[in-house]
Amino acid sequence: MNEKLRNCIEKKTTSYTPIWFMRQAGRYLPEFREIRKKNPDFIKLCLNERLSAEISLQPIKRFDLDAVIIFSDILMIPYGLGQKIEFKKGIGPILGDLNFNVILNTKPNDFIEKLSPVYEAIKRVKKEAKDKNLIGFVGAPWTLLMYMLNKKSPKNNFDINKIIKNKSLMRDLIIKLEDIIFLHTKEQIKAGADIIQIFDSWAGLLPKNKLSEYCYIPTSKIVKNIKSLEIPVICFPKGIGENYIDFCSAVEPSCISIDYEIEPQWIKENLHGTPVQGGLDPKILLGDREEIKKNINKYLDVFKDYPYIFNLGHGVLPETKPETIEYVIQTIRNKK
Ligand code: CP3
Known about the structure:
By secondary structure, the chain is an alpha/beta fold. It is built from 16 helices and 9 strands. Helix 8 packs parallel to helix 11 and helix 9 packs across helix 11. The chain is globular and about 60 Å long. Coproporphyrinogen III (CP3) binds next to strand 3.
């Protein structure tokens, strides 16, 4: 079994740099686009255990990666809680109206039943990729709440005060999400996931005085529960800048995934030994090879004697050439 990712996180090994990519299964791969073309309903595709397993395995058939991440989506949780979800080409996810009673009264067993193809896909991947770490994932409560209430990407016109105006409802929803998110990770672990990543892609929308209530506290409860199952947790609270340090003190993740706005040297100096993942701006991979190499070396040099997992500061962009991913991996493997 290749435990390189887990060893880097748990034993803090520094002699080998494990590599995987967020969105390593996705639109930059022609073999993914081929399947996607025939499956216009994205949620249905995520619930097709055979295809979902096949897509998860696509990147490791091409590349020398240390982990598989299950092909699914963070919005499978609102789906499992009864909210309608559609993915519109060029727009992204569009969610239906939120029925609080339906959500708050969803029974754990009904949720598990609805999402069972996700767990079946994980079992298939585990069988096929015995020699790799298998990463399961969830969205953090804040990012899920944001999608559930805003019902679309917050890229344009986002008003946080509108989202959080009903305090008591927010409290009920957060409690429900903490339970359901943990349930979803527990089922992924039972099916074979041996690492969990929590994506808080929109943590950066929270002002500093709301980070604790909406990000640190709910996330730390989930992290604690996952760690009690002896499974390491990688947290990715994207866009919170210097608050990464407070995040690590409050949440105590097993590993922290950084975005491209953070200076790697600064984070290394201010963390107290928490293993680090990622950082490189995915846009760099659209440029020339000299620039790519220079930027990879920046991260590898800073984290030379520090537990570090190579990844990007966000997902692989659809415009990325698969050959570039190969080049990145070779550059890291050949580094002396
Ligand atoms: O990393 C992997 O390879 C595993 C698969 C994965 C997907 N989504 C597949 C996907 C993971 C880990 C996610 C997480 C996810 N989903 C996040 C957190 C990470 C991040 O990007 O910040 C978020 C915010 C979502 C919600 C989501 N799903 C959006 C906003 C979109 C549309 C825009 C986009 O980025 O493509 C999706 C669709 C989605 N999820 C696709 C894939 C491969 C593209 C589907 C397609 O149109 O073919």
